[in-house]
Amino acid sequence: MTIRAIPQGWVLETRTTGYALGVNDAGRLSHRYWGVRLPYLEDYPLAANPAGWASFNGPTHLTPEEYPAYGGISYIDPCLKVTFADGVRDLVLQIDPAQQASFSQTELTIHLCDTYYPLLVTLHYRVHAEYDLIERWVTLHNLSEQNITVERVLSAQWHLPGHEKYHLTHVNGRWLDEFHLLREPLVQGIKVLESRRLTTSHHHNPWFTLDRNTADEQRGEVWFGVLAWSGNWRISAEVTEFASTRVNIGLNDWDFAWNLAAKQSFTTPSSYAGYTDEGFGGASRRLHDFVRTTVVPNPHLTHKVLYNSWEATLFDVNEHAQLELARLAAEMGVELFVMDDGWFHGRTLDNAGLGDWWPDKQKFPQGLTPLIQGVNALGMDFGLWLEPEMVNPDSDLYRAHPDWVLHFPTRARTEGRNQLILNIARPDVQDYLISLIDRLLSEHTITFIKWDMNRNVSEPGWPEAEGEPREIWVRYVQGLYHIWHTLRTRHPGVIWQSCSGGGGRADFGILREADQIWVSDNTEATARLAIQEGFSHIFPPSTMEAWVTDASEHLISLEFRFHVSMCGVLGIGGHLLRWSERERAEAKRLIAQYKEIRSTIQSGDLYRLRSPQHHPFSAIQYVSKDRSEAVLFAFRTYIPDPVELPPLYLCGLDPDARYRIDGVDDVRSGQAWMHAGLRVGLNNFQSSLLRVWRV
Ligand code: DGJ
Question: Could you give all domains of the chain from N- to C-terminal order, each with its CATH number?
């Protein structure tokens, strides 16, 4: 499991996979192999030397280049496109004769340079062997004395074995309805997924999975990848006329340009990709383990059961009402009480206050401290909602700094939810937000922040900026990371949640700063089952905040709603003052049960047994890493009776060990539960939580 040099190239090996690249006879850095790890180094194929196809398709067009640039006689969707100061828009990259590629156990660095212009393109590879993942990113260095305009710079092109037909699986959706899985055949041409909204977006996610239409949840070869970026992104899956399939992934080049000034560098975000023959489940378990151990700021954190006031009180928050909720929450076993929107200066509705991040005097005459102390006295931590990137025109901040928002001077400023977007690419805006939030966190005992972002971009202008205005897309996200990272470094005890009207900013980039994600504003339990399933293909349950609310309370039992939310990080968001004593007692029992099983849910292996997006009878299972216990949730929504529900075939157990299951008399081998199955009887809109123990 390492990186090794082979004739004309390198092999990157992980626990079960191999990835080979090398230089072909024409001097082009070419992809050679990606798939199951091969026993011997000489097993890896040599770089191809295609001859070309008539005068219309030159050899370069047929070469599987690792990082194709726009230039020459190649029409592959390129990774890199630039314009040099003299107007030349053609790149000819070759291995840099002046700088040797270098590699260690885990990192490989290859330098390409243009044959005429002093532009250096450094390709970085990092092996995350245990997770079967390879990380790629790119740095451009302008070694010349003149500007270079970069019009596209992607993180990677991932190549699949050629001459095969693939299906692309991705997620799509919209606000209140995110993460729907879609699997479609790729045909000759280019399939593009993207965000042009400044954030990752509710509509698509920078994640792809490809298979030969032979994989399922448990088995089959899949190639998968993500981009760690929280702004505009683009994935293009291309099938060429020569049956070569490649996936480009990186910053979206739509309305993008970067002025790479003399002697300056530019680094792309990372793309992580992997291969497994363990189906879609195997792919997501690798991503889950990687996120939990390597991406999130607090690896292996046990996430607390929280209460959030939003759906109960909306903007109508005050000390007394929040404490009333807090008392009930504490009695039920909640560990973290989060006050949502409505607490800050001038905020009574969504038309005022954003930007003025100090407590509203009318609602909190003594500030937040009495409430926080009250919550702490009840034995809970205190958390707070913020939407730092936004400003209402009706705010002190906007009145003082109307120029601080994204805008074009000749255009009306389009509001979304009565708010405008602060231009956090500006260092003065960054400093302002850092100092205000730093003060808030320094003066109060706040251990959790929900960072929200409730609209998408319009008029992406920065009139005062010198230079290339289309850099804004990247500079905004860099500003976001800078603010967030500075705050979390200054306040390491704070846990952060990423929210953008639900799941509008869920990606591996934000997970370097945020410990968890608010998956959707849709908290209706049956809708949530589907949304959570899509989310689980990319992100681990430990990042999936899920509240029990009052949505569909007359149709869906409290237990069903709890079971759905227990599939991730359990939270409560219902109006507790309206819950009966019996409901609160039931909630207390279920919260206590969640605490017993949460380590398996949050850090175990997740198996999707039956998809809620495809079946009204669905099931999901979590297995502890040592396979000594498991948790099984089964859900039935509506199926006309009479019906015989199919058996559930458990997964991930030790085949030779014996296991018992809650409420089931038989003790059977793991092999039997996995292959003979388990019958779970459920009526419509009933759910079941079963614990499985090795005996
Ligand atoms: C959108 C979030 O997703 C909700 O949970 C809530 O925090 C509101 N914003 C508050 O304005």
Answer: 3-295 (2.70.98.60), 306-388+427-457+496-602 (3.20.20.70), 609-694 (2.60.40.1180)
